[in-house]
Design goal:
mainly beta, 9 strands, about 180 residues, nine-stranded antiparallel beta sheet, single chain, elongated, binds zinc ion
Length: about 180
């Protein structure tokens, strides 16, 4: 299940339970956007979340020294669907960027995605963030494509589908 803000901070502060190491890595699925031109990435990821507020999006915390897993979940960090983490980290199931905007033919489009990434912490402090997937790789879930020229939304995941795992919320209610 998901970590609360406090639980996450406590987990990082405690360090590794096995080796007492203080170098931890927190894997998460994080929101960001990317520019593509002719369907290919032309920018780095621009993140769109608060750096100190990832606790609910974290799916694994591990020790960088001994590889002990200190926390792990298997539900979707975004919608909580049981066992859906594999779909989040698997092949992309969202829309594929077209070569140009179907409305105005502009070639530079903005993709919004949920992206596999991690934060590293050294002695309780945030040390760096690494983007672990790029467009076309597993763990890069595109959920919306916009044209910055005419502001048309070119494509997006279906209204009832989770933007990370793709599961329909209608199905979830039925279960
Ligand atoms: Zn360790
Ligand atoms: Zn356009
Ligand atoms: Zn989901």
């Amino acid at each position: 299940m998901m970590l609360g803000h406090r639980e996450f901070d406590d987990l990082i502060a405690a360090g590794c339970r096995s080796c007492a190491g203080q170098f931890l890595r927190a894997w998460a699925i994080l929101p960001g956007s990317l520019m593509v031109s002719g369907g290919e990435p032309v920018s780095s990821v621009k993140w769109s979340y608060e750096r100190d507020d990832i606790h609910d999006l974290v799916y694994r915390v591990e020790c960088r020294d001994c590889a002990a897993v200190l926390y792990e979940r298997s539900d979707c960090p975004k919608c909580g669907a049981a066992g859906s983490l594999g779909r989040v980290l698997g092949p992309g199931h969202g829309p594929t960027p077209p070569l140009q905007c179907p409305q105005c033919e502009y070639e530079d489009l903005r993709l919004s995605a949920q992206i596999r990434a991690y934060h590293e912490f050294l002695h309780r402090r945030f040390s760096r963030r690494v983007c672990a997937a790029t467009l076309g790789e597993p763990g890069f879930q595109v959920y919306q494509i916009d044209c910055p020229s005419c502001e048309h939304t070119v494509a997006s995941t279906q209204a009832h589908a989770c933007i990370a795992c793709g599961r329909s919320s209608l199905l979830k209610k039925l279960r």
